[in-house]
Design a protein that fits this description.
homodimer, alpha/beta, Rossmann fold, 2 domains, 5-stranded parallel sheet, 3-stranded parallel sheet, 10 strands
């Protein structure tokens, strides 16, 4: 059984268009990349297409190295015509990732990577939650009642596993949350007992049918390339017994819709300041 | 079986004294309270005693209301002679708590309540983790090997449950972490299967022996007053089958040692700037 993520994206996009129709500000997104590979370039092109379809101005800036990126980010963070900043990851220099996310103006941090925005999650404020984590929540809230459910998250990244766990613990949602990872023992016993499973491990076909409870909701955050095709972290056979999000056209698409929605909301907010 | 928290406090205090002996800066802690009750006053007095025993200058400032507190915090945050700021909680005006923690200079935020410092936990940086959460970790690291263990946290507060879960997920520790709360179903099945249980619910005797696995490590963060006596969240009988931290003289004492240690480290750092 497949969760219809297309209609969730459409719903968010409709909200984006509605927001934009009510502001006179021209919303603008700037996306950065450093020495991008062809995969990154093709992702940024699809972003551009999406932005244009919604009426958001889009600029793609390719920096030659991390130092140039830093200088460009500082300038862009102050530019009042820019309402959202996106930085393609991973960066060539992994060491500087934290420094880079701190250079993005927290109010334009549509990806939700800035430590201050992450810390706000602990206080229940999700205005700039990590965009992929937000996409997971958007899908879950439309697919099931979360309250009191057992949710297991496989993966503990700063952009998915950790923030999704905090967001599912928020009082309005109140799932009982377990976070698993490479050091977890007997993972199958944990996932098999879960109503909700979020998988973000980056390994094709990682979650097998025998690891999943009948009728569970499975959110597949994985993006893996196998023989030139994009596949998720969830074995295709899981859909015979549980609800799963497709890959491609699942979490990734909803994430792009979330990103654009934030650019629109930021533009509308700047209108009122 | 009782975990010897006294020796853990002593170890941290010894480190504090050593740090102070190597700096010429006079370390100073300022603690604030708004319209404090007798319990808060007596806690602040014990803080003063501890600071003085370690050679840390201590100032207690009582504000008449939250507005006065805000003005005082702004000044204190800029005062270079102050190396740590403590604010007694809860505040009379709960709504303003987030605003208050944001007024504390993040570099003097020895309690680790500032959103930026909380967000840094997600990136694995714990310099200013919430002090009670840090005390829990200090105790656990000296009591058991955490790697791969099942840890259950009961309670999801911004100062204990949520940060402890992030800190136990950090790669060097790598526990499998479950966070439970009032909406959790069948809590006993979860706690009974856990190697580590951290309880922070604020209900005397909440964790019963039948909820705990033989030989588990139980960290009691509760502070409750029952018939004039301070007791924790863990039923006394749990110590017949598991390791527990005493209350009083457990997490609370270690937390005070952690606080003082941070003031000393901050003073030593200011020496080098």
């Amino acid at each position: 059984m497949l969760i219809d993520c297309k209609s969730i994206s459409n719903e968010i996009d409709a909200n984006t268009k509605d927001t934009l129709s009510k502001t006179s500000v021209k919303a603008k997104l700037v996306s950065f990349a450093v020495a991008p590979d062809s995969g990154t370039i093709s992702y940024l092109k699809s972003q551009k297409k999406k932005a244009s379809s919604l009426g958001i101005e889009y600029e793609m800036i390719i920096a030659t190295d991390v130092d140039e990126l830093k200088a460009l980010l500082k300038r862009c963070s102050k530019d009042s015509s820019v309402h959202g900043i996106f930085v393609s990851h991973p960066l060539p220099d992994k060491e500087s990732e934290l420094e880079i996310v701190q250079l993005v103006n927290p109010n334009k941090d549509i990806e939700g990577r800035n430590p201050n925005n992450l810390g706000m999650l602990i206080y229940g404020h999700e205005q700039f939650s990590p965009c992929t984590a937000q996409a997971v929540i958007e899908i879950l809230e439309r697919s099931t009642s979360i309250m009191g459910k057992k949710a297991t998250i496989i993966g503990r990244s700063p952009t998915v596993g950790m923030p999704v766990s905090l967001m599912l613990l928020k009082r309005e949602r109140s799932a009982t949350v377990t976070v698993c990872h490479t050091k977890t023992r007997n993972l199958q016993a944990i996932t098999k007992d879960s109503d909700i499973v979020v998988v973000a491990v980056g390994r094709a076909g990682f979650l097998k049918p025998e690891m999943v409870k009948e009728g569970a909701i499975v959110i597949d955050v994985g993006i893996n390339v196998v023989e030139g095709k994009i596949v998720g972290d969830v074995d295709n056979k899981v859909q015979e017994k549980a609800w799963i999000t497709p890959v491609p056209g699942g979490v990734g698409s909803v994430t792009t819709s979330v990103l654009m929605n934030r650019v629109a909301l930021n533009a509308a907010r700047s209108d009122k300041i």
